[in-house]
Design goal:
The complex is a heterodimer. Chain A is mainly α. Chain A has one domain: MetI-like (MetI-like fold). Chain A has a two-stranded antiparallel sheet. In chain A, strand 1 and strand 2 form a beta hairpin. In chain A, helix 3 packs across helix 8. Chain A is flat. The model of chain A has no long low-confidence stretch (mean pLDDT 90). By secondary structure, chain B is an alpha/beta fold. Chain B folds into 2 domains: 217 residues, Periplasmic binding protein-like II (D-Maltodextrin-Binding Protein, domain 2), CATH 3.40.190; 185 residues, Periplasmic binding protein-like II (D-Maltodextrin-Binding Protein, domain 2), CATH 3.40.190.10. In chain B, 47% of the residues lie in helices and 9% in strands. Chain B has 21 helices and 9 strands. In chain B, the strands form 2 sheets. In chain B, strands 3-2-4-9-5 form a 5-stranded mixed sheet, covered by helices on one side. In chain B, strands 7-6-8 form a 3-stranded antiparallel sheet. In chain B, helix 3 packs antiparallel against helix 14, helix 9 packs across helix 10 and helix 20 runs antiparallel to helix 21. The longest helix of chain B is centred in the N-terminal third of the chain and has 18 residues. The N terminus of chain B is likely disordered. Classes of the chains: A mainly alpha, B alpha/beta. The interface between A and B is large, with 40 and 42 residues. Strand 2 of chain A pairs antiparallel with strand 1 of chain B, so a sheet runs across the interface.
Chain lengths: 299, 439
C-alpha cells in the first residue's frame, strides 16, 4: 500500500516537535554526552594537566591502571567504605524513621533537627568532627580519659583501622537523614488496617516490623540503597578532608585517586582513565536502579 | 606524536570570556582592569596588609582594581592546575614555594620575571636571594617575596630548666633525650608531622639532609637509597614516641597549634610561632626560643628548609604589564613592611634596604626576640628546599610534582606507621620519584 504523503500541517507539526525537543537534546548533549566523550577521549592520551598538552597512548593508561596495585587497593577501600557507610545509614535511618513515626513529644522539632547533618556543608561537618576527634583537645578523648576508659588519647584519623572506621561513621552520620526522610514518607502511607490485622492475629512489635513494615518499605529501600550506593561510591570531599586518603593509602578511594592523578601528579589522561573505569562500575548500580524503578513503575 | 589539545581549551576560554564580557556593564569594560592576586598566606593581619598594598596601587593607577583571593598550602597545586588548563589564571601569585614555579615555568606557564626584579632593584636583594629562581634558560621565573626558615626547632626554656636541660640540643640524640625528659604532665615532646601531606614530605626531606643525605644527586638523579635515608627513617620513627598520637595526621596548622598552645615542649615551624605565642598564649611568651634543627651528628651542618615564598606572574594573564607593575609595588616599603609585620619572623625580608629600615625594625616582636629573628634570617638565607637542595644542585623542575605525589610522606607512613620493610619501601619510593622525573 502506497504511503500517504504528509500534509503541510503534519510537516509543520513534525518540525515543531523537533524544535520543542531540541533544547532538551542540546542540554543533554552539553552536560552528559560531551563530558562523557571528552573523558573517554582524554583517557587515551598522556596529558600534562596545566597545559592540556599530551600525546596519544591508546589503551596504555588502562593497562597501567589495571596492573597497578593502586587501583585495586582503592577499589577495595571504595567498596568497604560504600558497603560500611551505606549499611549504617540504612540501619540508623530506618531506626530513626520508626522513632519519628511514633507519637513522641516535640516530634516536629525532632523531624527538623534530624535533617541537620544532611544540610550542613561537608567542610563544616568535617571541621567539627576533626575537632571532636582531636587528640589534644577533642571532647571524645577528653571524656573517655576522664571516665578512665582510656589512659592515652586515641588516634582516630591517623592509624588503621581507626581511620577507615571513623570515616565510615562520619559518612553514616552525614547521610543517614536522607534515609530518614524517604523512609518516614513511606511509613506515613502504610495503611493502619495492616497493623490492625496483624495485631488481631497476635503479632507483637517485632513481628509487625518484619511482616508488615519491612515488606512495605522494600521498594523504597531498594531505590534508596541504589541511589546512596551511587552517591557514596563517588564520595570525595568528606574522605579527602578527613584523612586525605591516609594513613598511607588506607582510606584512598577511587575518587581520591582520580584527584591525585589529575592535580597532584598532573596526569589528566590517567585520571580520566580512572574516572571512566569508575563510571563503568557505577553503571552496574545504575542499570540495577533503572531496572528496579521500571519494575516498580510497571507494578 | 605530540598533540596540542588547544581547540577545546580555546572554545572554553572563548565561552568564559564571552560570558564574562556579557555580564560586565559596558562602562566598566571600557575603563577597568582587574588583577586577580592569589596567595596561600591569608591570616587576618596579612590580608589587612595586602589591602593597604592594593589601595596604594589602585590610587596610583586609576582604573585598575586588584582582587585578592585565598588559596592554601595544600590546595594551590590543584587550583593552579585547573586555572592553567582552563586559561582562567590569576594575574599574580605570591607566597608559593620556589619549586612550584620552576615546574610551571619549565612548561611555559610563567612569565619571565627579570624586568620586575630590575624594577625592584636587583642590587637591593640579599646576595644569592634570586638564585633559586633562576631557570634553565637563564631567566628568572619569579622572585622571593620573603624568606622563611620553616624547620626551626622551637623550645620552651622553662620546661628545659624544669627537666634539667641546660643547653639547646644540637644532635638528634640530644633532641630525643630532651623531648623525653620534657614529656610529662600531659605535655608531649614534639609535634613532628607523620601525615599524608606536603608538610611531612618537606620536613622529612630536611631530616634526610640532617642525616647527611639527599633526595637527588647534583645531576638530579635520585639518590634516596642510602644509609642516610635509613638513619633518617629510624630516628624519625623513634621520635614518634614523643609526639602526640594525632601527629599521624599533622600538617602545618596542627604542628604550630600544638607548640603554641603548650601541648608540646618543642616545635617545628617558621617564625610565625612568635606572633602566635604572644597573641594566643602569652603565658609562655617569655620562655620561647628557637635554634636550627639538630642533625645526626655535629659533623653534619644544619639544613634549613626555606620554601622561598615567591611572587610570579602566569604567562596566560591578560594584564601582564600591569601585573608586573603591581608585583614590583609589593616591595614598596610601606606595604611590604606592613606585610612582614603581619607575621613577624614568619616571612623575612629579601631586600637589604627593608631589613635595615628602622620602620621594619620598629616592631614589638622583632624587638622582643632579636636573637631569634636574626638567627632565622641567617638560617633562611642559607636555606634550601626540595627544588634546590644545595648550592651545587640545579633547580629541580619536577620537585613540585614530587611533593604533590606524596611519595616521600608515604614512605614515612609505610615505614613508621605500617612497619613495612625499609629496603623495600625506599626502593619503591626511589622508583616512584624516578618515574616522576622521567615525566
Amino acid at each position: 500500500m502506497a504511503t500517504r504523503p504528509k500534509t503541510l500541517l503534519e510537516r509543520h507539526y513534525a518540525l515543531l516537535g523537533l524544535a520543542l525537543i531540541a533544547p532538551t537534546v542540546l542540554v543533554f548533549c552539553a552536560v552528559i554526552v560531551y563530558p562523557l566523550i571528552s573523558a573517554i577521549y582524554l583517557s587515551l592520551f598522556s596529558i600534562f594537566t596545566p597545559t592540556l598538552e599530551g600525546e596519544w597512548v591508546g589503551l596504555a593508561n588502562y593497562r597501567e591502571l589495571l596492573t597497578s596495585g593502586d587501583f585495586w587497593s582503592a577499589l577495595r577501600v571504595n567498596l568497604i567504605w560504600t558497603i560500611g557507610t551505606l549499611t549504617l545509614q540504612i540501619v540508623a535511618g530506618v531506626g530513626m524513621a520508626l522513632i519519628l513515626h511514633q507519637n513522641i513529644w516535640f516530634r516536629s522539632l525532632a523531624r527538623s533537627l534530624i535533617l541537620f547533618p544532611y544540610f550542613v556543608s561537608t567542610v563544616v561537618a568535617v571541621l567539627v568532627w576533626k575537632w571532636l576527634f582531636n587528640d589534644l583537645y577533642g571532647i571524645l578523648n577528653h571524656l573517655m580519659m576522664t571516665a578512665g576508659i582510656i589512659d592515652w588519647p586515641i588516634d582516630y584519623l591517623g592509624m588503621m583501622p581507626n581511620a577507615l572506621i571513623s570515616v565510615i561513621l562520619v559518612g553514616a552520620w552525614k547521610y543517614f537523614p536522607f534515609v530518614v526522610i524517604a523512609v518516614l514518607a513511606r511509613l506515613q502511607t502504610i495503611p493502619d488496617a495492616l497493623y490492625e490485622a496483624a495485631r488481631i492475629d497476635g503479632a507483637g512489635p517485632v513481628a509487625r516490623f518484619f511482616d508488615v513494615t519491612l515488606p512495605q518499605l522494600r521498594d523504597v529501600l531498594v531505590v534508596i540503597i541504589m541511589l546512596r550506593a551511587i552517591w557514596d561510591f563517588k564520595e570525595f570531599d568528606l574522605i579527602f578532608l578527613l584523612t586525605g586518603g591516609g594513613p598511607v593509602n588506607s582510606t584512598e578511594t577511587l575518587p581520591l585517586l582520580v584527584y591525585k592523578e589529575a592535580f597532584a601528579l598532573n596526569q589528566m589522561g590517567m585520571a580520566s582513565a580512572y574516572a571512566v573505569v569508575m563510571m563503568l562500575i557505577m553503571l552496574v548500580f545504575m542499570i540495577l536502579y533503572v531496572r528496579r524503578t521500571r519494575s516498580v513503575d510497571g507494578a | 606524536m605530540t598533540t596540542m589539545l588547544t581547540g577545546r581549551r580555546n572554545v572554553l576560554k572563548g565561552l568564559a570570556a564571552t560570558t564574562a564580557m556579557t555580564a560586565l556593564p559596558r562602562a566598566a569594560r571600557a575603563q577597568e582592569t582587574t588583577l586577580r592576586w592569589w596567595s596561600p598566606q591569608s591570616a587576618p593581619l596579612q590580608v589587612a596588609a595586602y589591602q593597604t598594598q592594593i589601595a596604594n596601587f589602585e590610587a596610583a593607577n586609576p582604573g585598575v582594581k586588584v582582587v585578592f583571593e585565598t588559596t592554601s598550602d595544600e590546595g594551590y597545586a590543584p587550583q593552579l592546575a585547573a586555572a592553567f588548563s582552563s586559561g582562567e589564571v590569576p594575574d599574580i601569585v605570591t607566597h608559593l614555594p620556589s619549586f612550584a614555579i620552576q615546574s610551571y615555568y619549565a612548561n611555559g606557564l610563567v612569565e619571565p620575571f627579570n624586568d620586575v626584579i630590575d624594577m625592584i632593584g636587583a642590587d637591593d636583594f640579599f646576595e644569592g636571594a634570586n638564585d633559586v629562581f633562576r631557570a634553565a634558560d637563564g631567566n628568572y621565573c619569579g622572585t622571593g617575596i620573603g624568606n622563611s626558615a620553616a624547620n626551626m626547632l622551637w623550645l620552651r626554656k622553662d620546661l628545659m630548666e624544669e627537666a634539667g636541660i641546660d643547653a639547646a640540643p644540637t644532635t638528634w640524640d640530644e633532641l630525643r633525650a630532651a623531648a623525653q625528659a620534657m614529656q610529662k604532665n600531659g605535655i608531649f615532646g614534639a609535634p613532628l608531622p607523620y601525615g599524608a601531606n606536603s608538610m611531612t614530605t618537606l620536613i622529612f626531606a630536611g631530616v634526610i639532609h640532617q642525616a647527611g643525605g639527599q633526595i637527588f644527586d647534583t645531576d638530579l638523579s635520585v639518590a634516596l637509597d642510602t644509609q642516610e635515608t635509613r638513619d633518617a627513617l629510624e630516628w624519625y620513627g623513634a621520635m614518634r614516641e614523643v609526639c602526640p598520637p594525632g601527629a599521624t595526621n599533622y600538617s602545618w596548622g596542627e604542628a604550630i597549634t600544638a607548640f603554641v598552645s603548650g601541648a608540646t615542649a618543642t616545635g617545628i615551624y617558621t617564625g610565625r610561632v612568635l606572633g602566635n605565642v604572644n597573641a594566643q598564649n602569652p603565658s609562655i611568651a617569655d620562655s620561647v626560643t628557637c635554634v636550627r634543627y639538630p642533625t645526626k651528628s655535629t659533623a653534619i651542618a644544619p639544613w634549613t628548609f626555606n620554601d622561598f615564598p615567591s611572587v610570579f606572574i602566569p604567562a596566560q594573564s591578560n594584564n601582564i604589564e600591569m601585573a608586573k607593575k603591581f608585583a614590583a609595588s609589593l616591595f614598596d616599603p610601606e606595604g611590604y613592611i606592613q606585610q612582614l609585620h603581619a607575621a613577624p619572623g614568619h616571612v623575612l625580608p629579601v631586600l637589604k634596604s627593608i631589613n635595615d629600615n628602622p620602620d621594619y625594625q620598629n616592631n614589638e616582636i622583632i624587638q622582643k626576640y632579636p636573637a631569634e629573628v636574626e638567627l632565622m634570617s641567617e638560617a633562611a638565607a642559607g636555606g634550601f628546599n626540595l627544588g634546590y637542595e644545595s648550592a651545587n644542585h640545579p633547580s629541580n623542575e619536577k620537585a613540585g610534582e614530587v611533593v604533590g605525589s606524596g611519595v616521600i610522606a608515604e614512605m614515612v607512613q609505610r615505614v613508621i606507621l605500617n612497619g613495612d620493610n625499609v629496603d623495600e619501601v625506599i626502593g619503591d619510593t626511589a622508583k616512584a620519584i624516578e618515574d616522576i622525573m622521567k615525566g
